[in-house]
Every structure is written in C-alpha cells, then in structure tokens.
C-alpha cells in the first residue's frame, strides 16, 4: 500500500477529524478505513490517495493510529508517504515512531493436489488451484520457494517442481535440508511470495524443520503475507495434525503440526481407505481438535487467516459428484461430516 499526501486539503486540528476537500483521486480517512479493514483485499493490491495541506506530526500520528488499529506490525508493509507540493516533489519516510502499516492477508493453500501431469512423461505443470494461489501474490513474476523435505530432498522432485514453476513464469528457489540447510531459512523463506511444500513423511518434515528453526521462519513469512501451500504432508504440516503414513503402512495420527491453522487435517480422503475412518475416530476420541478439514485428491482449501474461504480444484469438476473438501466436527458426542463443494465456502 502507498499513501500519497499532497497539499489540496487541510486537517482540522481543533476537531481532530479528517475534513478533506473532495476532488478527483481524493478520499477521506472515513472512506479509507473500510479499505484498510477489508482483510479480503491484500495490501499489495490497492493504493490510497489522501490530499493534505502539509505533513504535520498530528497528521502522521493520526494515520499511524489508523494503520495500527488494523493489525500487528509488519516490516514488509511499511508505507512510504509521498509529499507532493505545487512546485516540487519529495519523499517523506516515516521514522520508527511514525511508520504507516497495514496487516497483510495471511493465506494458506492446503491440498491433496496442486500439480498435474505435464505435456510429456516425467513432467509436471501447475494446476488451476496453484495458479490461482500465484495470482493472489499480486506479482507478475512471483518468487517461489520450493521445499521437498518430506521426501528427503529427492533431486527428481526438485527438478519436476522447478520446471513446473519456471514454465508458469516464477523465479524459483529450492530450500534443501540435506545434507545441511541450503541457506538462512529466515532470509530465503522471508523473501518468497509463495512457499510450496511437497508430500512425503510429515513426521520427518516437522522434526527437521524444528531442528533447523524452519518452523519459526515459516510462521514469520506467513505473518508478513507470504502464501504458504503444499500437498499431503505439505498440507498437514500447517494444521494441528492429521492422519499420516509416516510411521508405516498403517495410518497413525500426527499431533505436533505447526498449528498455524487450529484444525486437524485429512488428505487423500477419497483415494486411501484408511483416511476417513481414522480421522472420524481421532475426532471422536479427542485426539484431533473439535473442527477438522479434509480434502479429496485434486482438491484444496484456501484459508485467509484461519478461516477457510474456498474449495479449489486442480481442474474443473462436477460440483455435486466430483472431488470435494469436508468439515469433520465433534458435536454433542457425535462426529458430523459436511461436504464442501468446490467454490466459496458458505458459513
């Protein structure tokens, strides 16, 4: 977000209200506030124009209070204030007391899909749901960080993923853990617009991430607006836990996820026979939280903050009979499953 300040109106200091002359490209603070508070609009996707007679400490203070009322402090969302006068233009950079900030929208795409077969054997391409996530970055050439920790940093998976994202017009950086981290997690993950995590053993992934403080870097990147996403293990990891084959052919629960999303998670819900009954059992006995979300193959759930807002699919599907997502809840001692068709999730 950029806030542009120029001379065409004035602040009424006596009433301490924003009394701005309306003209083209001018908005009052009253009309700016809803835009700032609309968390469905990423801060990168809009700009706000204010016209003020001068930049005074009171003006900066008022705008800072407005921005701070929206959410926590995020370094990446610090706005520059451009002061435009009749005969010159200069840039005012708020000092550490007067930084103007808005909270970015935190997003996670948790899927049982994401990639689809490419034009020739042994190639991948990004599915519709992953392409949608890229558009949400607001970048023409998004920076993507790819992690295949759960599959032991297998070179083949990195090659497939790097090509798929490159073909889609992304700048891709792999982050490897074996034999040692390939860089500083905070720097590499924090510079990404989207982070994509492949499948495999979520138990191994979580252990290694915590060992190398990747879990902390993931949470920090998410707070700053980086979109987190992944398939299978790369879906479960963002939740409290879920069902996993990390320990062998018989599925077992994992309960030490990053818990950025306060739910349990089920993946491959329609293709692996053990998944649905085990999740229901874990919800019933309290091993999993009261509310859980699951996805069929080729399906994902987009979260904004911790709210599930849409069911996305790799390709168009029949909304009635095709793959879907599910909310699995513990209600009054019973487990209730609700099918969530592709599209916006209606509360």
Task: Describe the structure using short key phrases.
alpha/beta; Rossmann fold; 2 domains; 8-stranded mixed β-sheet; 6-stranded mixed β-sheet; disordered N terminus
What would you note in describing this structure?
- This protein has about 350 residues and is α/β, with parallel strands linked by helices.
- The protein folds into two domains: about 5-90, no CATH class; about 105-345, Class I glutamine amidotransferase (GATase) domain (Rossmann fold, 3-Layer(aba) Sandwich).
- The chain is about 25% helix and about 25% strand.
- It contains nine helices and 20 strands.
- It has helices spanning about 30-35, 55-70, 130-135, 155-165, 185-190, 200-210, 215-225, 235, 275-285, and strands spanning about 5, 50, 80-85, 90, 105-110, 115, 125, 145, 170-175, 195, 225-230, 240-245, 250-255, 265, 290-295, 300-305, 305-315, 325-330, 335-340, 345.
- An eight-stranded mixed sheet has the order 9-8-10-11-5-16-17-20, sandwiched between helices. Strands 13-12-14-15-18-19 form a six-stranded mixed sheet. Strands 2-1-3-4 form a four-stranded mixed sheet, with no helix packed on it.
- Helix 9 (about 275-285) links the parallel strand 14 (about 265) and strand 15.
- The longest helix has 13 residues, at about 155-165.
- The protein starts with a strand and ends with a strand.
- Mean pLDDT is about 80; it is low at about 1-60 and about 65-100.
């Amino acid at each position: 977000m950029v806030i542009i300040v120029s001379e065409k109106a004035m602040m009424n200091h006596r009433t301490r209200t924003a009394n701005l002359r309306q003209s083209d490209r001018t908005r009052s603070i009253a009309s700016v506030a809803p835009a700032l508070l609309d968390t469905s609009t990423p801060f990168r996707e809009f700009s706000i124009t204010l016209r003020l007679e001068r930049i005074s400490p009171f003006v900066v203070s008022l705008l800072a209070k407005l921005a701070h009322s929206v959410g926590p402090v995020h370094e990446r969302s610090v706005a520059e204030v451009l002061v435009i006068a009749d005969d010159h233009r200069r840039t005012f950079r708020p000092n550490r007391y007067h930084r103007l900030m808005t909270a970015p929208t935190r997003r996670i795409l948790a899927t049982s899909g994401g990639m689809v077969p490419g034009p020739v054997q042994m190639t991948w391409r990004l599915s519709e749901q992953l392409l949608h996530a890229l558009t949400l970055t607001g970048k023409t050439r998004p920076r993507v960080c790819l992690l295949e920790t759960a599959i032991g940093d297998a070179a083949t998976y990195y090659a497939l993923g790097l090509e798929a994202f490159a073909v889609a017009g992304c700048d891709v950086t792999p982050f490897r853990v074996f034999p040692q981290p390939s860089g500083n997690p905070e720097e590499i993950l924090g510079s990404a617009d989207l982070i994509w995590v492949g499948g495999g053993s979520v138990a191994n992934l979580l252990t290694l991430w915590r060992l190398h403080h990747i879990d902390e870097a993931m949470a920090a990147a998410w707070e700053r607006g980086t979109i987190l996403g992944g398939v299978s293990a790369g879906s479960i990891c963002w939740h409290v836990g879920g069902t996993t084959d990390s320990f062998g052919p018989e599925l077992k629960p994992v309960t030490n996820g990053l818990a950025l999303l306060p739910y349990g998670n089920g993946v491959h819900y329609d293709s692996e026979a053990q998944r649905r009954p085990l999740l229901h059992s874990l919800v019933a006995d309290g091993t999993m939280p009261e509310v859980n979300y699951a996805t069929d193959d080729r399906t994902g759930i987009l979260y904004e903050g911790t709210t599930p807002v849409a069911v996305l699919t790799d390709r168009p599907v029949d909304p009635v009979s095709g793959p879907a997502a599910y909310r699995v809840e513990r209600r009054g001692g019973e487990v209730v499953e609700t099918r969530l068709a592709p599209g916006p999730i209606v509360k």
